[in-house]
Design brief:
Radius of gyration: 24 Å
Strand content: 15-25%
Helix content: 40-55%
Structural class: alpha/beta
CATH topology of one domain: Rossmann fold
Bound molecules: zinc ion
Order of helices and strands: HEHEHEEHEHEHEHEEEHEHHHEHHEHH
CATH superfamily of one domain: P-loop containing nucleotide triphosphate hydrolases
Number of strands: 13
CATH class of one domain: Alpha Beta
Strand order of the largest sheet: 4-7-10-1-11
Low-confidence stretches: none
Length: about 350
């Protein structure tokens, strides 16, 4: 996307939780991505695209198989690159890959190159969106309206960090580790709990409520439309500073660990809420590390956990699982009591 089409991130009015969640996801991919929920027209997609100005620079393999000079198996194209003295690794900003709503399973997972099949009578398995998204940000607008088979493929890849492309007996493996961002309008339908659980952070993006905020948002939008270059220039310094903080936080993250108090707090709050998924406390601590990194602190403390807990913990409780757990406990009690009675007879 041409930078002129990117709305400056600091110019987004309000929505502090939305902005924070997107930054944390860039800083620590282990958080497992972000789900943005809210009505249409509150700027979810604009905010995601605004990340283009803040994308960290990463080193990555030039080929979809992820060959490096140290790989056990190096693909033919990469062997030729090495022979020509070219590097197998390139350094560039992370990209934003947007998944269209009408994406088919083979577009997403990859499949057979039909031109090669027809012209050369051989099967060439090609990567899909999931491997193109490797090392990048994958954005799915209206994730709740996507074909369930496509959603499952994306979740599998996100969980395993790789995709399999199969055609009959042929299988190829492509690395696919990405930052997943989904957005949805809950009026259009809910997400399955299994999908909901995959998103590390859940952000509710309400419409701006105060007159002052709405006025500021309208003015910004008008100025941007009238002269995008001048509008971007107004925010250039703030944008550069924010991009630097993201880079610094990413560099510092490996050294930042949660304190024991932060770990205990995370586990206690998750169990007090009776949240079934163990992903909750893992994500809570990963998000706390990212939050501490963003604020240039040496470790993640209880205050960091407290600050990001609502983003991590909302929508993780399950009435169905609570009811099932109660039923199992009651059933086990009945089994034990029947056993006691029966044993008294033998
Ligand atoms: Zn290769």
């Amino acid at each position: 996307m041409d930078p002129i089409n990117v709305y400056p991130f600091p110019a987004l009015v309000g929505q502090s939780e939305l902005k924070l969640a997107l930054l944390l996801a860039l800083i620590n991919p282990a958080i497992g991505g972000v789900l943005l929920e809210g009505p249409y027209g509150v700027g979810k997609t604009t905010a995601v695209r605004a990340l283009l100005d803040l994308m960290p620079t990463v080193s990555r393999a030039v080929c979809h198989h992820g060959c490096t000079p140290a790989s056990d198996v190096i693909c033919l194209a990469c062997r030729e690159r090495l022979a020509r003295g070219e590097s197998l690794v390139l350094t560039e900003p992370m990209r934003l890959i947007e998944l269209p709503l009408n994406a088919r399973l083979e577009d997403v997972v990859g499949g057979m190159n039909e031109r090669v099949a027809l012209e050369q009578r051989r099967v060439l398995l090609e990567p899909g969106v999931l491997s193109i998204a490797h090392g990048n940000v994958l954005y799915i607008d209206e994730v709740n309206l996507l074909d369930p088979a496509v959603v499952d493929a994306i979740l599998d890849a996100a969980a395993q960090g790789r995709t399999f492309v199969r055609r009959g007996a042929m299988v190829r493996l492509f690395p696919s580790q990405f930052v997943l961002i989904g957005s949805m309008n809950p009026e259009e339908g809910r997400l399955r709990p299994q999908i909901l659980d995959r998103f590390g952070l859940r952000v509710w993006t309400p419409p701006l409520t105060t007159g002052a905020e709405r006025l500021a948002a309208t003015r910004h939008a008008r100025m941007y439309r009238a002269d995008p270059i001048a509008f971007r220039a107004r925010f250039a310094a703030e944008l550069a500073e924010l991009a630097q903080s993201v880079d610094r936080a990413r560099a510092a993250l490996p050294e930042i660990q949660p304190s024991e108090e932060a770990e205990v707090l995370a586990v206690e709050v998750v169990s007090a809420l009776q949240i079934p998924s163990h992903r909750a406390e893992i994500v809570l601590l990963e998000a706390a590390r990212a939050y501490a990194a963003l604020h240039a602190r040496a470790s993640a403390e209880p205050d960091d956990v407290t600050r990001i807990a609502p983003l991590v913990l909302r929508q993780r409780r399950s009435a169905a699982i609570d009811a099932e757990a109660e039923r199992v406990v009651a059933e086990d009690a009945a089994i034990r009591s029947a056993l006691d009675q029966a044993r008294s007879l033998v």
